[in-house]
Amino acid sequence: MVKECKVKLKSSDDKIFEVDYAVAIQSQILNNTLGHTGCTDSALPLHNVSSQILAKVIDYCEYHVNASSTISEKDVKMWDQEFVKHLDQATLLDLLMAAQYLGIHNLQELTCQTVADRIKDKRPEDIREIFNIQNDLTPEEEEEIRCENEWAFEEEVSP
Amino acid sequence: MEAPEEEIMDSLWKDLPKDIVEMVLLFLPLASAMQFKSVAKEWREFLGSNCHYRTRSAVEQRTPWLFLCTSGKFSCAFDFSLKRWYKILNPPLYRQSIVSASGNLVCLGNLVADCRALSLCDPVRKLVKSLPPMSRIQFIHKVSLNLQRDGAYKIMVVGENDRAVNNLRGLVTEVYDSKIEIWKMSGETMAEAKFGLDAGVWINNRFYCIVEMPYGVVIFDQKRDLWEELEVKMPAGCNDMSSPCLVECRGRLLLVLRNSSTESGNGKVQIWELMKKRGGLKEKKDLEWGLLEEMPENIEVEFMASSRLGDVSDRLICCGVGEWVCIMTQLSGSALGFNLVIKKWEWLGKDPAFPQGRTCHLYAFPLQPISHCQL
Fold it and tell me: CB-based burial of residue A44 (10 Å sphere; 0-12 exposed, 13-18 middle, 19+ buried)?
């Protein structure tokens, strides 16, 4: 039985958002909470999610409520790509963490994939710079890694 | 994927919680993950751990590699995420080449000479395992590996008995079960079938492959241990059809072939799908081949120019890789992909084995490196 009620969500900066029950329960956390409390008039506080990010999360969830049943896979894919395409680094990472916090599995996968795609072409030295990691491997250890996985380190031969 | 041009803000990435970083790493293509082992000791340990490998294979939507194997020094793998080819060393087994693949494993044997025993290999982790010899088969006509979700696998082989000894006409079928590590004879002998050169595909524990003269499809039902014919009329007459290849994409059975009976009069490469008859009764047997896609004119021109498909010496080599139907020919280096979901054709580039590294033993399989089966 699909509940018709509305759910109120409060962002970390105290903004209230109202969404349909079906939209809210795409979050595992909210699904569990609402399962216990049922629909109430009070807003559920989401301490870790700012209003800017919560708005985007709601956008995503509203589209995906009916996606599997009424929209073609191709269109869903294209919408997802558009959704993440122009996100700046900060928003993307915040969205990833919000998806994880709220337990929205497909949004989590989408944002993880997007972040991974943005770093997949980088060299190890670039990765060290981005994550501010010290290289604690000896040259012999680095060489060992290269030999074990030689195929992955080979430069592409242009035809 | 294009990232917006901007400076990478240190604090953003530096302060990411460790579990988030580890989650992101799961979504990297394998080559990147292997390269990032050389970032630091902790990364090397994590990216090489069994825990990481296991969780990697749980990411379901990952597109496998297009694995093009040949009997030369190395085979080639195309990664759809990085859009490039890799050279993967072939295991140096005497008189054995890759004849089948499933999940992260390849199966080695010999299809042109006597072969009583097969081997299994994980080509990325460089592990090889010899299997016990088959009970009767000495000369293989068809072999296929089927890796199941739980990491167990079965290998089906059709072949001839020791020819000198037995008067038994027909081909026998044996199945290897990894759970009990034994080859078991199937109850049936097949009348001598002429198998096509395609590798065949598994769908729901049923193995489908092409037979020739005339062209048809036969099915080995592993559960019921018997062979049956697919009683569905082929999409074109035998004289018009060439190089038929069965392909599996997300549980759908497709047939790629070259059809010379098309309206234009010129041969066309077509993709057909086995589907329920429209308006037919909802019976299991009410199936037909429906035309899914025809190679568009501009792509066809380029494809034909780079191959010799009009020639009997050339043939189509196809396989399903995730959502992609991959199409190549024996004599041409350019691989083509058709994405079933977004309905787009895309060139995948020349593989590094072409032409010198290629031998006439050439097969294409989907390979999901570092997935769940531990050899």
Answer: middle
User: Would you state the structure tokens that stand for residue B197, as one six-digit string?
Assistant: 């050169």
Task: Give the residue from chain A lying closest to B17, CA to CA.
Answer: A97
Other Cβ atoms closer than 10 A to A48: 15
This prediction has a pTM of 0.90
Q: Is A9 helix (H, G, I), strand (E, B) or coil?
A: strand
Please, are residues B94 and B364 in contact by the beta-carbon 8 Å criterion?
Answer: no
User: What is the pLDDT, as a whole number, of residue B285?
Assistant: 65
Q: What is the pLDDT of residue B86?
A: 95
Q: Determine, for residues B35 and A131 on separate chains, whether the beta-carbon distance falls below 8 Å.
A: no
* CA closest to B339 among chain A residues: A74
pLDDT confidence tier of residue B311, bands split at 50, 70 and 90: confident
- The three-class DSSP label of residue B217 is strand
Residue A141 token pair: 């250890």
- Of A115, A157, A22, residue with least CA distance to B3: A115
Does B209 score more than 90 pLDDT? yes
- What single string gives the DSSP state of each residue in B9-56? -HHHHHTS-HHHHHHHHTTS-HHHHHHGGGS-HHHHHHHTSHHHHHHH
Q: Is A105 on the interface with B (CB under 8 A)?
A: no
Return the percentage of chain B with pLDDT > 70, whole number. 91
Looking at the partner chain, which of B17, B39, B89 has a beta carbon nearest the beta carbon of A127? B39
- What is d(CA B70, CA B76) in angstroms, rounded to the nearest whole number? 8
Per-position b or e across B28-39, b if 16+ CB within 10 A of its CB: bbbbbbbbbbbb
Cβ within 8 Å, pair A159-B86: no
Residue type, B44: R
* C-beta of residue B373 within 8 angstroms of C-beta of residue B178: no
Mean predicted lDDT score pLDDT of chain B: 88
Whether complex ipTM tops 0.85:
yes
Q: Is A90 within 8 Å of chain B by CB? A: yes
B176 near B213, Cβ under 8 Å?
no
Does position B1 have pLDDT exceeding 50, yes or no? no
Which chain B residue shows the shortest CA-CA distance from A148? B125
